[in-house]
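Dear H.,

Thanks for agreeing to be a second pair of eyes. The structure we're designing against is below in token form, covering all 115 positions.
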């Protein structure tokens, strides 16, 4: 596709989510875990399993955060156009839901360590 001289592109992409992309990445992580080494090695190098798991887990977390963010925050698009960290986005979601959050333990601690 060629860009015409008068055509402009938006500065930011806009996504209108109808499904949760995080779920698809979680399924992919399951496939990585379940794949026997001989089948996994037909597609990927053996040393790639762990790095792929981390990358896909990161994509899953991003997917879930953005899916929820779009549903609980009418200004989510504006908020995400700023450089916001994963922690900032999670804090915003929890504050809008009026729920406490503790990044010092459990899953949230692991999420923050991942990013």
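And this is the sequence the design step returned. I haven't edited it by hand at all.
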């Amino acid at each position: 596709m060629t860009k015409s001289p008068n055509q402009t592109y938006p500065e930011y992409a806009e996504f209108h989510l109808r499904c949760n992309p995080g779920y698809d990445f979680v399924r992919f992580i399951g496939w990585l875990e379940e794949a026997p080494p001989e089948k996994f090695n037909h597609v990927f190098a053996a040393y790639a399993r762990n790095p792929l798991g981390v990358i896909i887990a990161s994509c899953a977390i991003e997917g879930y955060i953005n899916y929820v963010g779009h549903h609980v925050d009418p200004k989510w698009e504006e908020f995400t156009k700023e450089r916001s960290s994963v922690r900032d986005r999670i804090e915003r979601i929890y504050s809008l839901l009026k729920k406490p959050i503790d990044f010092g333990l459990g899953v949230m601690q692991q999420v923050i360590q991942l990013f």
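Two observations from my side: The chain has one domain: 21-114. The radius of gyration is 18 Å.

Warmly,
E.
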